[in-house]
Amino acid sequence: MELVSLLPALTTTALFAGALWLGREMISTRLTRSVQQEFDKKIESVRADLRASEERFKAQLWEPITIGVGFELVRSYFHSCSRIYPLVKSPKTLVKMA
So where are the chain's domains? Predict the structure, then answer.
């Protein structure tokens, strides 16, 4: 058999193999990008929820509270969550508030 007679069969096989490889790569790439995009959306949603939760937490830490004797106090976020500092504007604020 001559090489010329096998040329159409070899060419067809090579083109078919190349098309299959290209198709597989395209599907793999699209699937990978789709999963990555979905993951990015979910992670951004989680980050946004975390930021919102953190802001609510910070707001709660700075929110003035009233204890049983009636003095207004505020929790300091920057120093310690367990320490409570009185808001003293003048000596009159130390009088029990009605």
Answer: 1-52, 64-98
